[in-house]
Each structure stands twice: as structure tokens, then as C-alpha cells.
Amino acid sequence: MEKKHKGDQFIGREITFKVLRYDPGRDKKPYLKAYQFVLERGMTVLDGLMHIKETQDNTLAYRKSCRMGVCGSCGMLVNGKPVLACQTQISELGRAVVEVRPLPNYPLIRDVVPDLTQLFDKHQHIKPHIIRENWEEQDSPTAEYLQTPAELEQYLQFSYCIKCGCCIAACPTSSTDESYIGAQALGQCYRYAIDSRDEGFQQRIPLVDFPQGIWRCHFPGACSEACPKGVDPAFAIQLLKKEITLKILGMKKDRQGAKLAGPQENPRVVADVPAAPQKTAGK
Ligand code: SF4
Ligand code: SF4
Ligand code: FES
């Protein structure tokens, strides 16, 4: 016998989507517009929006790309919660009426499309890349950096961030202070701080230790609850606070980044591997 799932009662029934609409060139203020359609098994909130656009209202604007929880484009507020629309089954919401709004704590471009410029600017601000003392070697690498599985494990969870912005939409501090650096950038700062290949911790401290920086996080943890990728930025932020405090108190030494791999003995030769492309930058 086929197993019944939570929400199966809604399959084949009419669902109402109340979607926030706003065109800054036309509307004085945002408003909710209702659309009805019959729910098919497996339909996500993004599928619902695509169905509305294809069959009822081609002026509806939303952002999407991968449709599989990878690109981070489709963050939205669904029944009051920040989620990825492509990963949210309508049937599992357990309601025949679904309210879809843009992620809060961002400026609105149109309908359910928020302007994520601040998110990307703040991410860029913390230098989200490996920093080495030896720039020459980093720019023209001669070998890989060595890293043990245990060292990888330390930052792996935090590297799953897809920059969807759901954490900032859930954060009470971000909702009252748009200059707060935010959960995403702080989480990624920790991700690089504990990467054994990185030597940039000292450089990054002033990038997060300022009045709108890390100390404004008071750890209710709403960001981690909202994160669809299990990154747990709230945890990363508290660990980063500890690392910075130890450094300021002189109780943490500068770490020397991972060593370069030496020449391999009996390297495995793989036939027909194409050569690396020519450098296009820094020529
Ligand atoms: S833990 Fe910090 S960053 Fe996360 S929601 Fe709370 S205040 Fe915001
Ligand atoms: S930490 Fe999570 S919620 Fe925040 S941007 Fe990254 S993936 Fe999205
Ligand atoms: S469309 Fe890419 S994460 Fe949803």
C-alpha cells in the first residue's frame, strides 16, 4: 500500500498563493495579489510561482536559476519564514493559503525580488579567499597546500554557504540596523579564519571588529535556524568572537599556513589530461 505523507490531503486541491506585488514604476506601495491553482504532487513554491507566470500573469517577477538549492537565488519569505522557494514543498506547508513575500531586511527591486547588493558587498568586505604571506607563490602556484581531513572538517560545514541571504532576513539585529555586517559575512570570516591554508586572520580582525561588526550579534540564533544549508552562522560567529578575543589578549599566536606539497614520488600519470588554460588575469 502506498505510504501517505504529511500534506497529501492538499494534492489535487485548489491552493491560493498570495504574492506580494510591487512595481516601483507603477505602484505607490506593495500589495498582495491572490492566485489559485490546483496543487500537483511534488510542486515547490518556486514551481507554483512559475506556474502562475506561465498560465495566469506573465508580469510576475521572481529570481531563480538552479531549481535545486545550489545557486542561492530563490530566497523568499513563505508563510513568514525565510526559505529557498525551490526547496519548499507546498504540500508540506500544511495550508491551502500560502503567502509569498520578498526576503525582509533588503531593499526591494520588484515583486518578490530583493536587492542583495549589500549581502555581496559585506561578503566581499571580509576577503573571502585564502590569504598567504607569500603572494608571489600564491599568484603562481607550484604545488598544492597540504591539508589533513581533520583540518578540512573544521571549516567544511561553513563552506556550504550559497549566499541566499535567508540568515540576514531572519536576524533581529539586521532588521534594526542595515549597517550591521551580518551573519553571512561573519560566518564566512570564521570559515577562512580556521582554514589551515590561510594566513589572513590578523588582516581580517579590523574588518569585523568595529561598532557595526561582530559584537552586535547577541546570539539568539535565528540565522542558523533559517539557514537552508546547515551552515550554522550563529555558531561560527561565537567561535570567531572567541578567536578574536584570544588574539586581542595576546593568547593566540599567528598561525603559519599549511605547507606546500613536496615533489611526488612516483606521480600517477593520467593520459590525455588537457593542459591548464593560459592565465587571463595579471599578465
Ligand atoms: S545569532 Fe547574531 S547574526 Fe544570527 S540572528 Fe542572532 S544576532 Fe543575527
Ligand atoms: S549562511 Fe546559510 S542562510 Fe546565510 S547566506 Fe549562507 S547559506 Fe544562506
Ligand atoms: S533556484 Fe537556485 S537555490 Fe533555488
In short:
About 30% of the residues lie in helices and about 10% in strands. The chain has about 280 residues and is an alpha+beta fold. The strands form two sheets. A five-stranded mixed β-sheet has the order 2-1-5-3-4.
Describe how the helices and strands are arranged.
Layout: E1 14-21, E2 31-38, H1 45-55, E3 75-78, E4 81-84, E5 97-101, E6 108-110, E7 113-114, H2 117-125, H3 135-139, H4 149-156, H5 166-170, H6 172-176, H7 183-193, H8 201-208, H9 222-226, H10 233-248
Parallel strand pairs: 1-5
Antiparallel strand pairs: 1-2, 3-4, 3-5, 6-7
Bound molecules: iron/sulfur cluster (2 copies) and FE2/S2 (inorganic) cluster.
Key structural traits:
single chain, 283 residues, alpha+beta, five-stranded mixed beta sheet, two-stranded antiparallel sheet, 10 helices, 7 strands, globular, binds iron/sulfur cluster, binds FE2/S2 (inorganic) cluster
